[in-house]
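RESIDUES AND SHAPES:
===
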Amino acid sequence: MGDDGRRHIGTAERRDRLALRQRLAGAARAGSPEEVAGALVALHGTDPATVHLAVGARLADAAKTVSGTERALYEDGTLVRMHGMRHTVFVFPAELTAVVHASTGIGVAARERASLLKDMAAAGAPDAVWLAEVEESALTALARRGQATAAELARDEPRLKERFVYAAGKSYEGVHTVSTRLLRVLGVEGKVVRGRPLGSWTSSQFRWAPAPEHPELDPAGARAELLRRWLTACGPATEGDLKWWTGWPVTQVRRALAAIGAREVSLDTGTGYVAAGDTGPVAAPEPWAALLPALDPTAMGWQQRDWYLAPELRPALFDRSGNVGPTVWWNGRVIGGWAQRADGGIAWRVLDGTGVGREAEAAIGAEAERLAAWVGTTRITPRFRTPLERELSA
């Protein structure tokens, strides 16, 4: 206990919690993609390859990564790719879709629809009544087809091909089709989800599918449930971490913390929170290494990252928009990065100043071989390129 009576959770213990709860230590690895997603709450889905690579890094049998993840996503429906926090695309356990929609999606959706109508009005495009007709027609066509690309839906509802100029006269002026913006809005509204891609598991060309039915939940209760799950997986976390990850106003974060009876703890860098009943110590895992993909949910899990990622490493590992690239981990901290070469080999580098020895390098090498074995002939290029990834891939 600290001098103020609060439980103190130092950086070393935070790294131990990360290893175990993020399923990264060898003994903590999962048996299925559903188990991985449940442990992490959400897998980043903006880059299609990230979902599979994040699962593979945490499976006890990585050879089942692709078949198991595709089964869960496209056959059993136990995982769902949908818009979530901050209108980002994630993959969630199916039982969380209602929680995410009520806690986050409703508010984001209102802003997205208002933005679309505003942009259409500014461009002299048809009004909200016209858009509602197109929307109803598109959803009917999608229900009939089961899954469809935007181009296929536009053959059924030609008005989806209508174009309008966005931000006319500004430096970022562009031309949008109605389908591009409308399907995005329907995604955050929880009416459609991403279906099976047109190509392999690395393809970014997705079909759309009707969203699975789910009950309408009380938003405040849903926020409490989402925060409870996330703190269980990622706690301790600061108020800033929670506000950043959820995208909620700080008032909603504080109400959800109070609703779940979260416990305040002291950290080496200030004040954090853990879920109720989660103040006890954890056993340190065996030494471990991991190769995590770009946008991995662990690397992107907290806004304040100095406890696992030294600030001096960020220029090499992040792009200019703040997206993390592929990272190399040793015992709870980022020590370098990796990339796939054109010949399929996995190249990695420990960055200067991280001070690791032969044990770490041997473990990292073994993880690189494990990754290369299950990826096979598939070639992976992260959607967001970072300086070190570009250099290693060349």
Summary: The radius of gyration is 22 Å.
